[in-house]
Every structure is written in C-alpha cells, then in structure tokens.
C-alpha cells in the first residue's frame, strides 16, 4: 500500500503520455513529474489514486545523462512546459515513445513510428495567450497557470514565443497599468505574430474606454515601428475556459495578418485556427501533400479555415472541405476566392452528417481527417468502415484519441505510416500524421 506523504525510492523505467517518469512500488505505478528514464529518485507521495500514485522528486540519486539545466527561470512553476529538463534529442525520443505507447496501450496496435520531425527548440510560437493579474501596487502583470490549475504565476517572458511577442506583451501590460484606473477587469492578453504583422487582443470582463485604447495603440505603434499592429478587444460574457469568445471588436490597425503558406495566400484573424509553429506546420502539410499525390478527388474533413484544402486543391481534380463552424467556412470561401481556386467545395456541416454521403458518392477519393483533440465521432468511423475509402490521412494533436480511432479502423485498415511532428517543442504535446490503407 502506498500512502500520501510516504517517501519512496524508485527506479524510473518509462514515461506517461504527459512525459512524467514512471517507477513501480509493489507493482503500483508511481508517476513522477520531471523524472527521466534510467534515473533513481527519492520521491514524496503527493497523491494516491486507485491504480497509481503521484510523487514529487525529493532527491535524484542516479542522474540520467540526458538531464540538462532548464533554460527558463519559471520552469516547474509555470505549467506551460514539461520537457525542458531533458536534452532536445531525448525529448524527441520520449515523444516518439508516447505515440508508440498510445497505439499499443490504448489501441492494442503494434506500429512502427518514424522519428519525430524536429522543430526550432525555443521561440517557435506565433501566438500566446497569457492570463493577466494585478498586484498590490495596482500594476498589471502577465502570468501563466500552474499545471492543471488556475493559479497564476507571474512571468516576464515566455521562451517558447517569438521574441517580439514577449516584448509586445510586456509593453501592453505596462500601458494597461499606466492608462487604466480599473485593473481587475483585465483577464487575458492574446498576441499572434507572423512575419511583420501582429494582432493583439485584450480580453476583459467589462467594455474598455475606446479613447484610452486608441492612446494605448498609438504608444504601441511608436514602440514597434517595424511591425504592422492590429488591436482588438474581447469582452468575456461567460465564465468558462475559452479565452477568445463573445464580443470581439476591432479597435485600430490591421484586421488580419496576410501570409503566404506554400504558395497559398492566407488571411489570419484573431479567431482563425492556425498552427502555432509555422515551420513545423509547413513540414507537416508538405508530408500530407506527398501522401496525397496521385489522388484525383480528396475529402478534407474538419477543414477549418481551409488552408489544407486549398493546398490539396493544387494537385487534385476536386477537393471537398467539411467544417462545422460557420465563420471558419466563410474564411475558407474567402481563401478560395482570393487564391482563385475553382476545384474546391466548402461544406458547412457536422462531419458526421456530411461525410457518410460524400464518401459513399466518391468511392475513390482520398480521405483526410484533421479533427480537434477529441478525435473522430464514432458514427464517422462507422461510415468510413461502410464506404471503405482506399486511403485515409489522419492528422492528430492527441495520440490517445488517434489510437482509440485507429483501433476501431484497424478491422478494415492497415496502418502504413506514422510520423510525429514536434509542433509544441519543450512540452509533452505532439502532432502525429497517420496513414491508413484499406486491407486487401
Ligand atoms: C485541427 S482543426 C483543422 C484545421 C485545418 N485542417 C487547417 O488546415 O486549418 C479542426 C477543425 O475541426 C472543426 N470541427 C470540430 N468538430 C467538427 C465536426 N463535428 N464536424 C466538422 N468540423 C468540426 C473545428 O471547428 C476546427 O476548425
């Protein structure tokens, strides 16, 4: 029996899906954040559940060669990163193993997993959303949440974000402190920067004084002369975990960032879905295009603002995009017009309603699935198994739901290729491309 507050000596032999080290005590798994495989650690048990326990490192008795000094001064306090204590090469091996384990443990599938496609280690994020808090001196500060909590840790930089994003955040909080009387209304600051365009959204619980916002924008613009800035406000209506929603208003400057992605001209607004790591996103989409080559028709389910559909339309005869969010479909239609794409149909429907008919009518079409974290609806899987498209390219940001869906598809499909992409370097999250081919 393991009890809370016990101190145990553990040999770390594997990892959880969150990159925690795993050791065993009397056959019970103990998960140890920041512990590495091959290490021997003394842990203090902080939680005991039915089938596992969680321990905090007290002392490392045997150290892994892969252990390194974290670069960020907020590491282990801020919940943003969980793999800064390990060499980059080793972090990629851990992610490869996380994907492999998900297929084995959740899918019952033994698959070959390719090496993880590398990223720039730091300063790769083109967007961050930081909670704002107010200190005793009525100064607004940017923060991050501790892992699995809403407890804010004040920070003054995030090493994952582009350098200018951190500089913009610092300036904005300084100006909010200087110009606004009521500070508690500020909830979040969202900054997205690509090439020389940056969109800043201030999220608050109350509408903000337009005159002061204009003043803030003027001060920011003179500070960042080489950037094209755009300012938005978002008045939060509901008390939930979604940061940007409700009443989003453009205040000043540019409304969208225009950018070229592999030859497609894209306009990105504060609410648009766009991968946070531009370089790795391009490598991922290039791999999708490679795998899609030779297919005349493509069905792109969960198509978002239509970037991938537009790329696929460069070589296919016709592409059908399916997306549930009306605004995203409007963006996808604008993207189509702007890029003069004629062979693309954007359908605004739930994939579970649109996909069964579409795959049945286009039996030879390639199917691309790029669902949100929760994966693909069970009825979509059933429709796929009935219509049996010859090939499926599944892009996933959650190895657990990918493995669950792969298990269901494995009755009719072989997994022919699995390649993880380090879209979120220094964190345990991983993006995966998985190719399914119909069994003979
Ligand atoms: C990971 S994003 C896809 C991004 C897109 N492939 C691109 O290139 O920008 C997932 C998308 O699935 C959409 N979505 C979520 N549930 C859906 C459903 N049931 N049916 C159709 N689309 C859905 C979301 O609105 C979101 O745009």
Explain what you see.
The protein is an alpha/beta fold and 440 residues long. The protein folds into 3 domains: 1-65, Nucleic acid-binding proteins (OB fold (Dihydrolipoamide Acetyltransferase, E2P), Beta Barrel); 95-120 and 277-438, Vaccinia Virus protein VP39 (Rossmann fold), CATH 3.40.50; 127-260, OB fold (Dihydrolipoamide Acetyltransferase, E2P) (Beta Barrel). The protein is 27% helix and 32% strand. It has 9 helices and 21 strands. The strands form 4 sheets. It has a 7-stranded mixed beta sheet. Strand 18, helix 8 (378-387) and strand 19 form a beta-alpha-beta unit. Helix 1 runs parallel beside helix 9 (399-409) and helix 2 (163-179) packs antiparallel against helix 3 (210-223). The radius of gyration is 23 Å and the shape is flat.
What's the short story on this structure?
The chain is α/β, with parallel strands linked by helices and 440 residues long.
Which descriptors apply to this entry?
27% helix, 440 residues, single chain, seven-stranded mixed β-sheet, alpha/beta, Rossmann fold, OB fold (Dihydrolipoamide Acetyltransferase, E2P), 9 helices, binds S-adenosylmethionine
CATH topology of the largest domain: Rossmann fold
Tally of DSSP helical segments = 9
Strand content: 25-35%
DSSP strand tally = 21
- Widest sheet, order of strands: 8-7-6-9-10-11-12
Q: How large is the radius of gyration?
A: 23 Å
Supply the number of structural domains. 3
The main pleated sheet reads as: 7 strands, mixed
Question: How many angstroms separate the termini?
Answer: 50 Å
Poorly predicted runs are none
Give the CA-based shape. Answer: flat
Helix content: 25-40%
Mean pLDDT: 95
């Amino acid at each position: 029996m393991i009890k809370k507050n016990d101190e145990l000596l553990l040999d770390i032999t594997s990892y959880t899906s969150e990159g925690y080290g795993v050791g065993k005590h009397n056959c019970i798994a103990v998960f140890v954040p920041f512990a590495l495989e091959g290490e021997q650690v003394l842990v203090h048990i902080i939680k005991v559940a039915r089938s596992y326990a969680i321990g905090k490192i007290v002392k490392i008795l045997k150290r892994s060669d892969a252990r390194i000094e974290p670069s960020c001064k907020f590491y282990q306090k801020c919940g943003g990163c969980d793999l800064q204590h390990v060499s980059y090469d080793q972090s990629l091996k851990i992610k490869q193993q996380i994907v492999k384990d998900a297929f084995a443990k959740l899918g019952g599938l033994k698959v070959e997993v390719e090496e993880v496609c590398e990223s720039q280690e730091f300063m790769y994020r083109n967007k961050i959303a930081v909670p704002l808090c107010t200190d005793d001196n009525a100064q607004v500060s940017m923060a991050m949440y501790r892992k699995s909590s809403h407890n804010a840790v004040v920070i003054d930089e995030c090493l994952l974000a582009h350098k200018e994003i951190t500089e913009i955040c610092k300036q904005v909080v300084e100006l909010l402190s200087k110009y606004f009387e009521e500070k508690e209304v500020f909830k979040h600051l969202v900054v997205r920067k690509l090439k020389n365009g940056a969109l800043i959204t201030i999220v608050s619980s109350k509408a903000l004084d337009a005159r002061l916002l204009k003043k803030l924008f003027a001060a920011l613009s003179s500070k960042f002369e080489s950037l094209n800035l755009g300012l938005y406000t978002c008045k939060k209506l509901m008390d939930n975990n979604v940061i940007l929603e409700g009443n989003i208003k453009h205040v000043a400057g540019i409304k969208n960032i225009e950018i070229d992605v592999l030859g497609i001209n894209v306009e990105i607004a504060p609410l648009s879905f766009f991968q946070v790591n531009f370089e790795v996103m391009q490598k991922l989409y290039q791999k999708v295009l490679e795998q899609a080559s030779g297919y005349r028709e493509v069905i792109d389910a969960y198509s978002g603002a239509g970037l991938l559909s537009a790329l696929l339309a460069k070589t296919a005869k016709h592409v059908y995009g399916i997306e549930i969010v009306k605004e995203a479909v409007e963006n996808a239609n604008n993207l189509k017009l702007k890029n003069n794409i004629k062979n693309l149909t954007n359908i605004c429907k739930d994939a579970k309603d649109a996909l069964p008919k579409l795959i049945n009518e286009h039996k030879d079409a390639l199917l691309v699935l790029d669902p949100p974290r929760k994966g693909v609806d069970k009825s979509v899987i059933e429709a796929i198994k009935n219509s049996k498209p010859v090939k499926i390219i599944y892009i996933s940001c959650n190895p657990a739901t990918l493995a669950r869906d792969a298990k269901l598809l494995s009755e009719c499909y072989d997994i022919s290729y699995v390649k993880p992409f380090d879209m979120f370097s220094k964190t345990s999250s991983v993006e995966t491309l998985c190719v399914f081919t119909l069994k003979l």
